[in-house]
């Protein structure tokens, strides 16, 4: 039991106010059950109250529904209509603003004997106890007393923890190769001051407190300046210093933008378009033999079916029509027995989509009985198949996910690399590969691209959108099998939210507004 709502007296259409905060994990199947009771006394024992019905769903099912609003019938009492429950999910609105700033400086102190200075800045936010925590460090600008630093982005919560009046301390240093950087000076500001943009309020004198104590005539060690983000002069200090002789730092640009989350896009209607491709090559073994990865056991699912269901049961919550294209590759197909690397499991080349994950599993088992396992193991045709579909939807309304389940012995490595490299700039997609035993060749790890970004014909992939997972790492029999499949799905799907965000950001696609609530069901 996670929690209970408040009691609403004498109502058949209660609108509960109490909210429940849960950790949301896209890559996990988070099962939920809702039980409703008619309260007859103050007893906390539920058996003392009348059971009114229950509903089952997943958290993903709620957030994946239009507007993150799910309506489900209540069940649990035989032969009786128990009514309806309406569930709403909302992402907690923590501060998600990101500020982009740029600074330049004038007349900083000369610290190097044979040159000028190599200045950089360090930003600190103040804590409740009066201490300071470092939150950003600029790059070093070499050999100048009038540096212009590159613009940088920083979450507002990192800069001031959401308190716009909290002090922000900035220190300016001269970089030294041995790490003993020379302190030039410092100044303080606040997020509220910085948000004024390019103005006289954002020109700061850089003061070295020690020099100020020792020297009566000391004024400062430079100035820092800042200015506007739109239409401002980049790389030029647009305002004269407060004192022409004093060193200053100036804010050159300031802009704030809300950082969108994965759920912003899902709530706005973005659908995950899921396609599965299954390896039908002879290296998997004869499906009639228990040693085969395709073994058709009447009593339990084979390895391919387990991997498909583990991933599909999660991702189906984010596709409203629940129609999933399912392809096979590496088999001789009827009627003429030609080898195909892109055949529909349901036998319909014009529409390879199956209804639900159950429909995909059924089409897969039917295909095993009508095709001949053959070879070689070519990925490129199914990758290109999904890429062609993805290239027709560039408005962010759909994001395409291809799950390839294979025994891992890839034959067309060069063509597959070229297919992946070519589709990445064009369309939103993520390619997941579940590698079944017995092999995990280096080729599969290379496609993953976590360490070295894959390339083809001198062209480097713009994004890393391949996730390779060895199935055998999650194999177990007995009661723990379900947990192992959950771990497999978690690793296969874990990168999708960040990949979707990186694609949307690169193309400048913002989430659509949440669709309006449908009219409530009458009592």
UniProtKB/TrEMBL annotation:
Record-stated family: Belongs to the copine family.
Pfam family, one: Copine
Keywords tagged on the record: Calcium, Metal-binding, Repeat
Organism, scientific name: Mohoua ochrocephala
Keyword rRNA-binding: no
Domain C2: 1-74, 81-204
Top-level taxon: Eukaryota
PANTHER family documented for this protein: COPINE (PTHR10857), COPINE-5 (PTHR10857:SF51)
GO cellular component: plasma membrane
UniProt-listed GO biological process terms: cellular response to calcium ion
PROSITE patterns (UniProt xref): C2
Hydrolase as UniProt keyword: no
Protein name (record): CPNE5 protein
Alphabetized Gene3D superfamilies for the sequence: C2 domain
Single GO MF annotation: metal ion binding
